[in-house]
Structure formats: C-alpha cells, structure tokens
Amino acid sequence: MDTETAPTYKRFRPSAYHPSMALTWWMKKPSYLLYILRELTAVFVAAYAIILLLTVRALSQGGEAWDTWLATLQRPGMILFHGFILAFAVYHSLTWFTLAPTALVVRIKDKVLPASALIAVHVAAWVGCSAFIAWVLLSA
C-alpha cells in the first residue's frame, strides 16, 4: 500500500461535557427539597456542637465566665436559635430512623421484619432514652 492511498487517522478528543443546571434545581421536586433540608441539618448540629464546646470552655474558666455565658444563652436570639437547632435535630433524627430499614434488614427465622416496625422500634428507643435523660436531669 503506498502512502497516497493509506487511510489517515485523526485522534479523537471528546470535549468535556458540562451540563447546565440551575442553582434552584433542588426546588423543583419536594423530594429534592427534603433531601437538601436533611443535609442542611448538619450545619445546625455542628453549630450546636460549637455552642457545647463554648459552654465547656466557659465552665472551665471559672464562675464569672460561666455567669457571663449563661447570660448570653438567655438572650431571646439565642433561645430562638436553640429552637431552630432543636427542630432541625429532630428532623435529622426522624429521617435517619426512616433510613434504617435500608441499611438494616432484620430476619426472624425466614421472615423479614417490616420497615415500619423497625422504624417504630428505633423511634421508641430514642424517645425512651430522651425521657430517661430528662428524668435524670430534672430530678437532680
């Protein structure tokens, strides 16, 4: 085969695919919105962890720092912020428990425990532990 009739090859280099996506993609379906809300709960849980660390720091610095920190926590804005944190933590916990049957399949002999029963057991254990902790704290 001579060089005039030989086929020539061109190296194929595909261009990068960049799909366009609106910033509000998560508002198009309720399931997307709930997913983003669940992910957003992590920010509030982290904020509470920071508040807890600041509380321990104030406690370690003595009575005057502790009294100042308690006065800060009793401001209306902080109380409202704690309400938001509580709401998001409860939502995070409930959605976590609804995911449990996906990760944990309980078999009793040759039958599978229904997802609703597994969720109910998790929620009942959560409420029971919370009630016990509240009882211990309030009776002290």
Search tags:
single chain; 140 residues; mainly alpha; 3 helical TM bundles of succinate and fumarate reductases; 68% helix
Account of the protein in words:
The protein is mainly α and 140 residues long. The protein has a single domain (29-139), classed as 3 helical TM bundles of succinate and fumarate reductases (Up-down Bundle). Helix content is 68%, strand content 3%. The chain has 4 helices and 2 strands; from the N terminus they run αααββα. It has helices at 30-60, 63-73, 76-103, 115-139; strands at 107-108, 111-112. A two-stranded antiparallel ribbon has the order 1-2. Helix 1 packs antiparallel against helix 2 (63-73), helix 1 (30-60) packs across helix 3 (76-103) and helix 3 runs antiparallel to helix 4. The longest helix is centred in the N-terminal third of the chain and has 31 residues, at 30-60. The relative contact order is 0.06. The mean pLDDT is 90.
